[in-house]
């Protein structure tokens, strides 16, 4: 039985549900989760606050169980702190030597295996966070050809943006922008159920932060069972 520990932001309404759906479809995978309260990433002091909170979340994540993987589920936090710092923070308080995965590195790996050269991004973030995200992806050798915004201000949380709005934004994005694939960024956006339908419609791979993170978690420990109903990435790789 593969054991995945999930570290989520306290306001994320989606990632645990997505991982449960994916693990049920995979079989032989168990998900354990914990949360941390994320402070704004405005300065170095706030970075340290978040690192401390992530470390405490890691410490209390089923400490008596040997996890195979710890999945850090926050794309913007990943961009701000960097994968190396997140890995060091988790490893400092765990004794199980779990492999650490994070959304941006997972997305970059997915782009590599799918031979994606240019990526169209759909996101719920504001312009400042989008700029940070684009820089972070390009630092990981993923070229972002365009960013299209979801109507996040119309809803109380990112997780409440309906599938109809997400799919409409995907259609607009692929009509207006050139790219080899499309990414719905943010672990708190409920896009998992739209992947297969949108891939059939737009004739391009459709990625989501949670899909990439889960796929990378399996790959990182050589777990080759894959759920086939959540896009080309999981079906073929």
Please give a structural write-up:
With 237 residues, the chain is of the alpha/beta class. The chain is 46% helix and 19% strand. The protein has ten helices and eight strands. The strands form two sheets. It has a four-stranded parallel sheet, with helices on both faces. A four-stranded parallel sheet has the order 6-5-7-8, with helices on both faces. Helix 8 links the parallel strand 7 and strand 8. Helix 3 crosses helix 6 and helix 5 packs across helix 9. The radius of gyration is 17 Å and the shape is globular. The model has no long low-confidence stretch (mean pLDDT 96).
In a nutshell, what does this entry contain?
46% of the residues lie in helices and 19% in strands. The protein has 237 residues and is α/β, with parallel strands linked by helices.
Specify the helix fraction band. 40-55%
Q: What is the subunit arrangement here?
A: single chain
The helix/strand series, from N terminus to C terminus, equals EHEHEHHEHEHEHEHEHH
- Terminal Cα span: 20 Å
| Strand element count | 8
Strand order of the largest sheet: 2-1-3-4
Structural class estimated from helices and strands: alpha/beta
Shape: globular
Spatial extent as radius of gyration: 17 Å
What proportion strand? 15-25%
Mean pLDDT: 96
Biggest β-sheet, characterized? 4 strands, parallel
The helix tally amounts to: 10
Could you name the ranges where pLDDT drops below 50 across 5 or more consecutive residues? none
């Amino acid at each position: 039985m593969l054991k995945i520990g999930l570290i989520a932001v306290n306001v994320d309404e989606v990632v645990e549900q997505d991982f449960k759906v994916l693990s049920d479809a995979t079989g032989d995978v168990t998900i354990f989760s914990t949360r941390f309260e994320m402070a704004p990433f405005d300065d170095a002091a706030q970075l340290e606050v978040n690192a401390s909170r992530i470390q405490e979340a890691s410490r209390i994540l089923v400490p008596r169980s040997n996890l195979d993987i710890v999945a850090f589920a926050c794309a913007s936090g990943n961009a701000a702190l960097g994968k190396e710092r997140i890995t060091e923070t988790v490893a400092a308080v765990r004794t199980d030597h779990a492999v650490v995965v994070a959304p941006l590195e997972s997305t970059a790996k997915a782009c590599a295996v799918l031979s994606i050269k240019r990526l169209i991004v759909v996101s719920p973030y504001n312009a400042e966070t989008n700029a940070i995200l684009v820089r972070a992806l390009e630092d990981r050798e993923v070229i972002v050809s365009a960013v299209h915004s979801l109507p996040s201000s119309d809803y109380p949380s990112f997780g409440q943006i309906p599938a109809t709005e997400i799919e409409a934004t995907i259609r607009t994005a692929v009509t207006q922008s050139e790219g080899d694939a499309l990414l719905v960024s943010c672990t708190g956006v409920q896009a998992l159920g739209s992947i297969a339908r949108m891939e059939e419609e737009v004739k391009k791979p459709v990625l989501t932060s949670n899909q990439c993170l889960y796929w990378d978690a399996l790959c990182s420990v050589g777990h080759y069972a894959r759920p086939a109903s959540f896009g080309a990435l999981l079906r073929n790789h």
